Amino acid sequence: MAEWRQRRRWRMGLVLALLLALTSCAIPQIKAEERLFLPITAELLDVYNLPPQTFEGTTIGGLSALAYDRPRDRLYALSDDRGRFGPARFYTLAISLADSDTGQPRFDTVTIESFTPLLDAEGNPYPSGSVDPEGLALSPRDTLLISSEGDVGQNAPPFIGEFERQTGQILTTLPLPERYLPDAPSHPTRGVQNNLSFEALTVTGSSGGAGMTEPFRLFAATESALVQDYNDDPSQPLNSRFLHYLVGDDQTTLIAEHRYPLDLEPSGAVVNGLTDLLVIDPGGHFLALERAFGLRGLQVKLYQLATGGATDTSSIPSLAGDVSGIAPIRKQLVLDFTDTPLAVDNLEGMTLGPRLPDGSQSLLLVSDNNFEGDRATQLVLLRLKM
Questions:
Q1: Among 31-45, 48-62, 294-308, 350-364, which stretch is predicted with the lowest mean pLDDT?
Q2: Among 120, 244, 306, 380, which is most exposed with the fewest C-beta within 10 angstroms?
Q3: How high does pLDDT run on average in the chain?
Q4: Predicted confidence (pLDDT) per residue in 160-170, tens digit
């Protein structure tokens, strides 16, 4: 009996040792952050400088958003011109990619084919100064979603509108909560800050043709904090608001809203904020483009976002105080452009582009030259691996 008990203890000890070995060695230890984000990398491949030029009576510049039309293999580029150098408009571009002598993909040709003016509900161009086009997305029903930052001083409110792709005429506007609308042209106590309004816009899905009526999701975000959310403590990051809409054939509903923490403003920053968003999967993952400019020069960073678990802030009147109990959208750095070999400018727009020659996914970005006559507009090509 004693011998049997000894053998039993020996076998149990062996089993425990094996279990410990499996726990400590065979099973990988995964950090919570690794489970939250997708394994994404972005490689900068090429920069194409579009020289200052005119096209059919308009000055090409101020390009602040991109949308790639995969079925037609065309690129739409939105100008943020408020009517100084032509009507509010977007351009249609044809681009081609090729391999360089080293086998690395690059821009081959970039051709501006046409421009389309944005028209109001009566079919007229918008009056000068009444719109500030900044965000652009191609919807699954073959329309264009365009956001305007508005102009607080001119009493021109911000809006997100759905436009016909072929004619540029507005079809409808999305409902905006009152908290986004400035309550006075001077010294407002609520609403978007001037020129820091709806800069980022993205939708789920791709163009499915004008007959498609299935609901889709639209996401928008302010470039920086609302007036009532502004915190002047430089040690605390400002918070943008991120909106989630469900867009149907007959009704559009704001589903939720979240806190998006910006990077801390660099010392001496003149401009700092979120310039674009891009949906990358149906599970709440996005790419986000942040840009800062000031005494230290230009800083541009590409982040991956994870929205799962973020607090719905739609019932929170202000984000200016203690926000420690308000779970934010989580961010993970994908690419800091200061660490890349090619210099980039004031990047403001991005879209998933055509497949690269090796079959991988391209990411296209565009810079806003602010209509400075000697400043080129950049198209930037990256390889995105997911």
A1: 31-45
A2: 120
A3: 90
A4: 999 999 999 99
Question: Looking at the DSSP assignment, which residues form a beta bridge with residue 370?
Answer: none
User: Is the Cβ–Cβ distance between 71 and 379 less than 8 Å?
Assistant: no
Domain 35-385 fold is Tachylectin-2; Chain A (2.115.10)
- Closest C-alpha among 378, 232, 161 to residue 291: 378
Residue type, 70: R
In angstroms, rounded to a whole number, what is the distance separating the alpha carbons of residues 230 and 222?
12
CA distances from 229 to 144, 196, 232, 320 (A): 30, 13, 10, 4
Domain ranges of the chain: 1-30, 35-385
Higher-pLDDT residue of 111, 5: 111
